[in-house]
Automatic annotation (TrEMBL):
Taxonomic path: Eukaryota, Metazoa, Chordata, Craniata, Vertebrata
Protein name per Swiss-Prot or TrEMBL: B30.2/SPRY domain-containing protein
Domain B30.2/SPRY: 41-231
Name of one Pfam family that matches: PRY
Domain of life per record: Eukaryota
Length: 231
């Protein structure tokens, strides 16, 4: 039983490295993905694939403009958010203000069980800064800085690297340059996995436990920057 459990856990870890490219872009991307695995992970992945037809894929998503900081502007399809100018007056009057001082917006669909995968591209001038991750629903009037237990798990991404953050606190510096990042959330296991959506390489994993609904979370901190969801 312990060996079977270990194999299952290893397979689960392998799945976290998967992006929707495996399903939508064919054998070339699949080969690149398999080549990135070590021997044990590759064996586990092939075994899993023989017995499962459904693979984790990124899901269509839109942004919830009603949750947004008023400095952000949106495309008509709610797939893109931009921070064109920073108006501090608007920011101090922002409602809801749970995630102040971030110029942020939540994804439109929350998660309270199962798993979900999404990808987002960050664009902007040199020195751009974006935040991509997961935020727990907060009680009315609460703010992220004084919410007690962690309610935000994210990457703060700049043109020179990225920092894993919980609430407003940075964990460490990662010298990884990212343009498009994927997020895999397994609600039941409490796993939040970040990967480079272009190279399929793992970046960082938070391991936690959820006690309420969580939402995709996106933020911008540099004027002239934007985020675009895919698909």
């Amino acid at each position: 039983m312990s060996e079977a459990k270990a194999r299952h856990e290893s397979i689960t870890e392998t799945l976290k490295k998967l992006t929707d490219n495996l399903k939508t872009e064919g054998k070339e991307d699949k080969s690149a993905f398999l080549n990135s695995l070590d021997k044990k992970d590759k064996e586990n992945w092939l075994l899993f694939q023989k017995n499962n037809s459904e693979l984790p894929t990124s899901v269509p998503m839109t942004l919830d403009s009603t949750s947004a900081n008023p400095n952000l502007t949106f495309s008509h399809d709610l797939k893109e958010a931009s921070l064109d100018l920073v108006d501090s007056t608007l920011n101090t009057q922002a409602k809801p203000r749970q995630f102040y001082p971030f110029y942020c917006v939540r994804g439109s669909q929350g998660l309270s069980s199962g798993y979900r995968v999404w990808e987002v591209e960050i664009q902007g001038p040199p020195g751009r800064v974006g935040i991509v991750g997961v935020a727990a629903a907060l009680p009315q009037g609460s703010q992220i800085q004084n919410s007690g237990p962690s309610c935000l798990w994210a990457l703060r991404i700049s043109s020179s690297g990225c920092q894993p953050i919980t609430n407003c606190s940075a964990q460490e510096n990662l010298l990884i340059s990212l343009r498009k990042v994927g997020v895999y959330v397994d609600y039941d296991r409490g796993d939040i996995v970040f990967y480079d959506a272009i190279t399929n390489k793992h970046i960082y994993t938070f391991q936690t436990s959820f006690d309420r609904q969580v939402f995709p979370f996106f933020g911008l901190q540099t004027a002239g920057s934007s985020i675009t969801l895919s698909p």
